[in-house]
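Field log, afternoon session.

UNIT: design team B
ACTIVITY: writing a sequence onto a fixed backbone
BACKBONE:
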């Protein structure tokens, strides 16, 4: 059957012992199938001879000629220069490492055939260390020569030989029947063979872009497998039982009444969708997308209220401590009238407090738990968890989400799950990565919001920017100054932010300026945020820790240092920290000149738009999905062949086909998922 090749370990091949297989595993190659799916990323054309006069820089070619000069040059580095001539011209070949024997061999009048990549050298084009043989012995290659992604200890030659060997195995002769449908899609084995060793007539441009029909056939199958995994996951979730939570209209009314604002129509609609879902006896898995500032927190509060008043525990998880603290405050205020006191659990609590919290969770004393990743660590048990809320989902990976789902203690009861993200996810990605979820969109901002006046400003005008900030603060504004630092370590980031703080304090002595960054103690962060909320601090110098969730409506001025370093979606998130109140807001995107064309284009997208979906689409067009979703997110789903951007047009059909297979041909779907299992096993853990 089709997945037999997955069962054959790579050691079956001659020449692959334990050491080799260890090295191959670093490329993700464990089985024969893995090797087959490890496709070349480019090709060399060694099928024909190129006249020396026709060589082009950086384009590998085979040439043949007679040596007409051979000498050792002593320069900065000793090198052997051999001059090769054919009917059309001549070229220098340079060896930095060469043996006596080599030097003997490469003497005048010897005929040579070389494959090499011409580079610009001292004497026009030169070849460095080309592969060469005596001309009359070797035959030209019959097919294009594949160049594979390799790693230390795994050479091109090894991979080429192994792949050739694979195609002689008896098991291969059964082909790799397409599992997507029987008739319409081709046997994939000939596709793979072609892609490993295309004929010299192949369209290299199409291959390089992944647009060869054979690549597309593989990508389609992989996408279908991936979609089938998600569909199956959804189906399995449907089979799980969840507590049916029912809302008590009185409690909801009382809660609404004390909010101080009325829900927007979009918020109202989403609350209703949630209320309906959690009233079912199978678990909700709902993704809420709402642009920055659209008011997701209050929607989460309604969901929490439904669960709490139904007698169930609720947990709310945030990506940063600052955000967890803020949610704690907000929810304490909102729920105090109901007698519900939320508790906090983050990674930095001392041991005894943490123990106490855990005990109180397990016995049901804590009804509403708010926290960070620490929530996931071993030992967190709930008494009767009914609802899990994950804020700013794009900051977490799939694994972490799955982990929490298993925290519901009551046997076989799965809590409902609400996932909130401000990253507007383009539709195709939603379908690909979130096909197992139901989606709601809050597509309306609370009334009274003003457009954030956004400017792109050269770093040369830093002085003017400070002056402008000063006068704004003097007339009551509060500002964030965001340092976007390239340093990878938190320590260095903190140091760099400190120096910006010093710079601002020096330039603007009349203002109260403070700093917040990820390395500070939780109490210190909390205290700085509290003073900023109270208005005691006028300028908050911050690292990107404030990127998500922070809600200080009075802050209405933002400066982003080196804005060109960040992605559009991230900038949009950051900017979303201002423009939350009724006051006019400003955002200055400072860049380090000179600014490249692409960066200029990107920053102007942000200047001209405040629509998160539009910005995300632009970001996707300019940079690709991995960047939009952040490292963690894109690390979740690794495709072997498919590329979400390139193969976007296949996703809808793959989605549909997967659905049909799961419903009508489960065995085929199963085989399909097994074949591409690397891409889907994440979804099996739940
Ligand atoms: P986000 O969707 O970015 O998480 P928040 O939930 O933090 O947004 O809400 C942003 C701000 O808007 C908060 O100060 C919140 O209290 C306020 N808000 C939310 N909904 C409404 C509404 N319907 N009318 C007025 N203000 C609202
Ligand atoms: Mg939020």
């Amino acid at each position: 059957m089709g997945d037999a090749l997955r069962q054959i370990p790579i050691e079956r091949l001659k020449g692959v012992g334990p050491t080799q297989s260890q090295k191959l595993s670093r490329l993700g190659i464990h089985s024969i199938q893995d090797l087959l799916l490890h496709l070349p990323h480019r090709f060399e054309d060694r099928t024909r001879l190129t006249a020396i006069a026709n060589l082009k820089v950086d384009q590998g070619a085979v040439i043949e000629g007679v040596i007409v000069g051979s000498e050792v040059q002593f320069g900065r580095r000793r090198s052997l220069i051999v001059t090769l001539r054919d009917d059309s011209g001549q070229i220098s070949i340079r060896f930095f490492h060469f043996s006596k024997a080599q030097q003997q061999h490469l003497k005048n009048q010897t005929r040579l055939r070389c494959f090499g990549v011409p580079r610009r050298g001292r004497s026009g084009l030169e070849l460095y260390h080309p592969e060469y043989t005596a001309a009359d012995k070797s035959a030209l290659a019959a097919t294009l020569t594949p160049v594979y992604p390799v790693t230390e200890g795994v050479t091109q030659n090894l991979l080429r030989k192994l792949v050739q060997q694979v195609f002689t195995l008896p098991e291969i002769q059964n082909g790799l029947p397409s599992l997507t449908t029987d008739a319409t899609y081709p046997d994939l084995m000939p596709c793979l063979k072609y892609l490993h060793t295309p004929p010299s007539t192949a369209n290299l441009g199409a291959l390089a872009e992944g647009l060869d029909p054979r690549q597309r056939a593989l990508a389609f199958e992989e996408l279908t497998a991936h979609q089938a995994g998600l569909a199956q996951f959804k189906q399995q979730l449907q089979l799980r039982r969840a507590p049916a939570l029912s809302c008590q209209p009185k409690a909801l009314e009382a809660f609404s009444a004390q909010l101080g604002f009325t829900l927007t129509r979009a918020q109202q609609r989403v609350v209703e969708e949630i209320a309906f879902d959690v009233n079912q006896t199978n678990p909700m898995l709902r993704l809420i997308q709402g642009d920055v500032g659209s008011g997701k927190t209050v929607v989460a509060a309604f969901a929490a209220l439904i669960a709490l008043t139904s007698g169930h525990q609720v947990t709310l998880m945030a990506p940063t401590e600052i955000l967890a603290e803020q949610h704690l405050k907000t929810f304490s205020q909102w729920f105090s009238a109901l007698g519900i006191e939320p508790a906090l659990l983050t990674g930095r609590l001392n041991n005894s407090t943490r123990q106490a919290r855990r005990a109180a969770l397990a016995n049901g004393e804590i009804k509403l738990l708010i926290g960070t990743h620490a929530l996931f660590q071993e030992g967190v048990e709930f008494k009767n968890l009914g609802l899990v809320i994950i804020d700013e989902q794009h900051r977490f990976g799939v694994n972490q989400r799955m982990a929490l789902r298993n925290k519901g203690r009551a046997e076989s009861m799965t809590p409902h799950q609400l996932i909130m993200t401000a990253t507007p996810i383009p539709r195709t990605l939603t379908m690909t990565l979130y096909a197992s979820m139901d989606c709601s969109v809050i597509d309306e901002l609370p009334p009274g919001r003003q457009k954030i006046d956004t400017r792109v400003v050269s770093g040369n005008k830093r002085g003017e920017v400070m002056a402008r900030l000063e006068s704004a603060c003097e007339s009551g504004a509060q500002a964030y100054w965001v340092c976007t630092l390239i340093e990878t370590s938190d320590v260095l980031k903190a140091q760099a932010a400190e120096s910006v703080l010093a710079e601002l304090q020096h330039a603007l002595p009349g203002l109260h300026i403070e700093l917040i960054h990820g390395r500070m103690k939780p109490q210190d962060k909390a205290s700085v945020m509290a003073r900023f909320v109270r208005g005691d601090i006028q300028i908050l110098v911050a690292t990107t820790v404030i990127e998500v969730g922070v809600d200080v409506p009075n802050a209405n001025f933002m400066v982003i240092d080196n804005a060109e370093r960040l992605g559009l979606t991230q900038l949009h998130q950051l900017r979303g920290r201002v423009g939350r109140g009724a006051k006019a807001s400003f955002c200055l995107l400072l860049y380090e000149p000179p600014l490249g064309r692409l960066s200029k284009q990107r920053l102007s997208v942000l200047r001209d738009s405040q629509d998160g979906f539009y910005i995300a689409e632009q970001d996707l067009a300019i940079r690709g999905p991995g960047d939009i979703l952040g490292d963690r997110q894109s690390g979740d789903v690794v495709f072997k062949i498919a590329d979400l951007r390139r193969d976007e047009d296949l996703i809808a059909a793959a989605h549909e086909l997967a659905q049909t297979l799961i419903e009508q041909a489960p065995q085929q779907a199963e085989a399909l998922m097994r074949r591409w299992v690397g891409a889907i096993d994440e979804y099996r853990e739940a």
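LOG NOTE: The chain has 25 helices and 22 strands.
NEXT ACTIVITY: expression trials, pending approval
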